[in-house]
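S.,

Sequence below, as promised.
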Amino acid sequence: MNKHKLKTFDQLDTFFDAVKKRVTERCDQLKEDYKKIEAREKRRLKNRQIKLERESHDLKDYVKEFDDFLLDFDQEMDFMANRANFDYYWQEFKQLESKMKKATNFFAVSEFKPPKFESMASEIEAVDQIGKITDNSDFSMPLVVFNTYNLKYVFNYYEKLRDFERLSLVDDENLADGEVPHYFKSIYIPDDKFLIMGGLERESSITSQRCFMVDEKGKLSVTMDMHVGR
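The prediction came back faster than expected:
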Protein backbone atom coordinates (compact mmCIF):
# COMPACT_ATOMS: atom_id res chain seq x y z
CA MET A 1 0.00 0.00 0.00
CA ASN A 2 2.85 2.42 0.85
CA LYS A 3 4.54 1.61 -2.47
CA HIS A 4 1.35 2.46 -4.34
CA LYS A 5 0.95 5.69 -2.34
CA LEU A 6 4.51 6.78 -3.17
CA LYS A 7 3.93 6.02 -6.84
CA THR A 8 0.68 8.05 -6.81
CA PHE A 9 2.40 10.97 -5.05
CA ASP A 10 5.17 10.89 -7.69
CA GLN A 11 2.49 11.06 -10.40
CA LEU A 12 0.89 14.04 -8.63
CA ASP A 13 4.23 15.87 -8.37
CA THR A 14 5.04 15.20 -12.02
CA PHE A 15 1.61 16.35 -13.17
CA PHE A 16 1.58 19.58 -11.16
CA ASP A 17 5.19 20.37 -12.11
CA ALA A 18 3.98 20.24 -15.72
CA VAL A 19 1.00 22.46 -14.82
CA LYS A 20 3.27 25.02 -13.12
CA LYS A 21 5.59 24.98 -16.14
CA ARG A 22 2.67 25.65 -18.50
CA VAL A 23 1.38 28.45 -16.25
CA THR A 24 4.84 30.07 -16.18
CA GLU A 25 5.13 29.76 -19.97
CA ARG A 26 1.68 31.34 -20.35
CA CYS A 27 2.71 34.23 -18.11
CA ASP A 28 5.88 34.80 -20.17
CA GLN A 29 3.86 34.65 -23.41
CA LEU A 30 1.43 37.32 -22.15
CA LYS A 31 4.37 39.55 -21.25
CA GLU A 32 5.78 39.12 -24.77
CA ASP A 33 2.37 39.99 -26.25
CA TYR A 34 2.36 43.18 -24.18
CA LYS A 35 5.87 44.10 -25.36
CA LYS A 36 4.93 43.60 -29.03
CA ILE A 37 1.86 45.84 -28.72
CA GLU A 38 3.88 48.45 -26.84
CA ALA A 39 6.68 48.41 -29.47
CA ARG A 40 4.18 48.85 -32.31
CA GLU A 41 2.55 51.82 -30.61
CA LYS A 42 5.94 53.39 -29.87
CA ARG A 43 6.84 53.18 -33.57
CA ARG A 44 3.55 54.78 -34.54
CA LEU A 45 3.96 57.60 -32.04
CA LYS A 46 7.59 58.08 -33.09
CA ASN A 47 6.49 58.63 -36.72
CA ARG A 48 4.00 61.26 -35.58
CA GLN A 49 6.72 62.92 -33.49
CA ILE A 50 9.10 63.04 -36.49
CA LYS A 51 6.40 64.70 -38.64
CA LEU A 52 5.68 67.32 -35.99
CA GLU A 53 9.39 68.06 -35.52
CA ARG A 54 9.86 68.43 -39.30
CA GLU A 55 6.89 70.81 -39.55
CA SER A 56 8.15 72.78 -36.56
CA HIS A 57 11.55 73.14 -38.27
CA ASP A 58 9.91 74.30 -41.52
CA LEU A 59 7.87 76.87 -39.59
CA LYS A 60 10.96 78.25 -37.85
CA ASP A 61 12.76 78.56 -41.20
CA TYR A 62 9.78 80.41 -42.67
CA VAL A 63 9.60 82.83 -39.73
CA LYS A 64 13.29 83.65 -40.09
CA GLU A 65 12.99 84.25 -43.86
CA PHE A 66 9.90 86.41 -43.38
CA ASP A 67 11.63 88.48 -40.68
CA ASP A 68 14.53 89.06 -43.08
CA PHE A 69 12.05 90.10 -45.79
CA LEU A 70 10.44 92.69 -43.49
CA LEU A 71 13.85 94.18 -42.64
CA ASP A 72 14.66 94.50 -46.35
CA PHE A 73 11.16 95.85 -47.06
CA ASP A 74 11.91 99.03 -45.11
CA GLN A 75 15.04 99.66 -47.15
CA GLU A 76 13.73 98.79 -50.63
CA MET A 77 12.27 101.59 -52.73
CA ASP A 78 10.63 99.41 -55.40
CA PHE A 79 7.08 98.81 -54.13
CA MET A 80 6.12 96.39 -56.89
CA ALA A 81 9.20 94.22 -56.24
CA ASN A 82 8.43 94.21 -52.52
CA ARG A 83 4.81 93.28 -53.26
CA ALA A 84 5.91 90.38 -55.45
CA ASN A 85 8.18 89.11 -52.67
CA PHE A 86 5.31 89.47 -50.18
CA ASP A 87 2.96 87.48 -52.43
CA TYR A 88 5.59 84.75 -52.67
CA TYR A 89 5.90 84.51 -48.87
CA TRP A 90 2.15 84.62 -48.49
CA GLN A 91 1.68 81.66 -50.84
CA GLU A 92 4.46 79.77 -49.08
CA PHE A 93 2.77 80.45 -45.75
CA LYS A 94 -0.58 79.11 -47.04
CA GLN A 95 1.14 75.94 -48.31
CA LEU A 96 2.87 75.48 -44.98
CA GLU A 97 -0.42 75.99 -43.14
CA SER A 98 -2.18 73.42 -45.34
CA LYS A 99 0.65 70.94 -44.84
CA MET A 100 0.57 71.28 -41.06
CA LYS A 101 -3.21 70.88 -40.90
CA LYS A 102 -3.05 67.69 -42.91
CA ALA A 103 -3.37 64.52 -40.78
CA THR A 104 -0.43 62.17 -40.46
CA ASN A 105 -2.51 59.32 -41.89
CA PHE A 106 -5.13 59.24 -44.62
CA PHE A 107 -7.58 57.76 -42.09
CA ALA A 108 -8.24 59.13 -38.61
CA VAL A 109 -5.51 58.10 -36.19
CA SER A 110 -6.73 56.03 -33.24
CA GLU A 111 -6.05 57.22 -29.73
CA PHE A 112 -3.25 55.39 -27.95
CA LYS A 113 -4.44 53.21 -25.10
CA PRO A 114 -1.96 51.04 -23.18
CA PRO A 115 -2.47 47.26 -23.28
CA LYS A 116 -4.56 45.84 -20.43
CA PHE A 117 -4.37 42.44 -18.75
CA GLU A 118 -7.76 40.76 -18.42
CA SER A 119 -8.71 37.57 -16.62
CA MET A 120 -11.82 35.87 -15.24
CA ALA A 121 -12.40 34.56 -11.74
CA SER A 122 -13.55 31.29 -13.30
CA GLU A 123 -10.02 30.79 -14.69
CA ILE A 124 -8.62 30.77 -11.15
CA GLU A 125 -11.47 28.61 -9.86
CA ALA A 126 -10.81 26.10 -12.66
CA VAL A 127 -7.47 25.31 -11.00
CA ASP A 128 -9.43 23.68 -8.16
CA GLN A 129 -10.84 21.21 -10.68
CA ILE A 130 -7.44 20.03 -11.97
CA GLY A 131 -6.86 16.35 -11.35
CA LYS A 132 -8.90 13.87 -9.33
CA ILE A 133 -8.27 11.03 -6.90
CA THR A 134 -10.64 8.16 -7.72
CA ASP A 135 -11.79 6.07 -4.79
CA ASN A 136 -11.55 2.48 -6.00
CA SER A 137 -12.56 1.01 -2.65
CA ASP A 138 -15.26 -1.62 -3.13
CA PHE A 139 -18.25 -0.90 -0.93
CA SER A 140 -20.73 -2.72 -3.14
CA MET A 141 -23.53 -4.42 -1.24
CA PRO A 142 -23.36 -8.23 -1.15
CA LEU A 143 -26.29 -10.02 -2.75
CA VAL A 144 -28.12 -11.60 0.20
CA VAL A 145 -31.63 -13.07 0.15
CA PHE A 146 -33.63 -13.21 3.38
CA ASN A 147 -36.76 -15.21 4.00
CA THR A 148 -38.65 -12.41 5.68
CA TYR A 149 -41.13 -14.82 7.25
CA ASN A 150 -38.43 -16.90 8.90
CA LEU A 151 -34.96 -15.40 9.31
CA LYS A 152 -33.38 -18.84 9.67
CA TYR A 153 -33.25 -19.12 5.89
CA VAL A 154 -30.58 -16.77 4.54
CA PHE A 155 -28.83 -17.17 1.18
CA ASN A 156 -25.71 -15.42 -0.16
CA TYR A 157 -24.80 -15.21 -3.86
CA TYR A 158 -21.18 -16.12 -4.69
CA GLU A 159 -19.86 -14.69 -7.93
CA LYS A 160 -17.25 -17.42 -8.46
CA LEU A 161 -19.82 -20.18 -8.03
CA ARG A 162 -22.54 -18.22 -9.79
CA ASP A 163 -24.97 -19.64 -7.30
CA PHE A 164 -26.64 -19.01 -3.93
CA GLU A 165 -25.55 -20.85 -0.80
CA ARG A 166 -27.36 -20.95 2.49
CA LEU A 167 -25.67 -19.17 5.38
CA SER A 168 -25.75 -20.59 8.89
CA LEU A 169 -26.59 -17.85 11.38
CA VAL A 170 -24.96 -17.84 14.79
CA ASP A 171 -28.12 -17.62 16.85
CA ASP A 172 -27.23 -18.54 20.43
CA GLU A 173 -30.44 -17.07 21.85
CA ASN A 174 -32.73 -18.65 19.25
CA LEU A 175 -33.91 -15.18 18.13
CA ALA A 176 -34.67 -16.21 14.55
CA ASP A 177 -37.32 -18.75 15.62
CA GLY A 178 -38.89 -16.94 18.56
CA GLU A 179 -38.21 -13.18 18.48
CA VAL A 180 -37.62 -11.77 14.99
CA PRO A 181 -40.96 -10.51 13.58
CA HIS A 182 -42.41 -11.77 10.32
CA TYR A 183 -42.09 -9.66 7.15
CA PHE A 184 -39.19 -7.58 8.49
CA LYS A 185 -37.11 -5.17 6.41
CA SER A 186 -33.36 -5.51 5.95
CA ILE A 187 -30.83 -2.72 5.40
CA TYR A 188 -27.18 -3.25 4.47
CA ILE A 189 -24.60 -1.33 6.55
CA PRO A 190 -21.30 -0.74 4.64
CA ASP A 191 -19.12 -2.45 7.29
CA ASP A 192 -20.61 -5.81 6.24
CA LYS A 193 -23.61 -5.90 8.56
CA PHE A 194 -27.35 -6.11 8.05
CA LEU A 195 -29.95 -4.32 10.16
CA ILE A 196 -33.18 -6.30 10.59
CA MET A 197 -36.03 -3.97 11.50
CA GLY A 198 -39.80 -3.79 11.91
CA GLY A 199 -42.34 -6.24 10.55
CA LEU A 200 -45.31 -7.88 12.32
CA GLU A 201 -45.01 -9.34 15.82
CA ARG A 202 -45.42 -13.10 15.84
CA GLU A 203 -48.12 -13.27 18.53
CA SER A 204 -50.17 -10.11 18.02
CA SER A 205 -49.44 -9.24 14.37
CA ILE A 206 -49.03 -5.57 15.33
CA THR A 207 -46.35 -3.38 13.76
CA SER A 208 -43.02 -4.01 15.45
CA GLN A 209 -40.52 -1.50 16.78
CA ARG A 210 -37.82 -4.08 17.38
CA CYS A 211 -34.45 -4.21 15.59
CA PHE A 212 -31.79 -6.91 15.25
CA MET A 213 -28.29 -7.00 13.81
CA VAL A 214 -26.54 -9.66 11.75
CA ASP A 215 -22.79 -8.91 11.95
CA GLU A 216 -19.95 -9.79 9.57
CA LYS A 217 -19.56 -13.20 11.24
CA GLY A 218 -23.24 -14.05 10.87
CA LYS A 219 -24.06 -13.55 14.55
CA LEU A 220 -27.65 -12.48 15.22
CA SER A 221 -28.18 -10.10 18.14
CA VAL A 222 -30.72 -7.61 19.51
CA THR A 223 -30.10 -3.88 19.04
CA MET A 224 -31.94 -0.67 19.97
CA ASP A 225 -35.68 -0.47 19.17
CA MET A 226 -37.14 2.12 16.82
CA HIS A 227 -39.30 4.95 18.21
CA VAL A 228 -42.12 4.08 15.86
CA GLY A 229 -43.02 0.64 14.54
CA ARG A 230 -43.10 -0.09 10.83
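The chain has two domains: 2-129, 144-223.

Coffee later?
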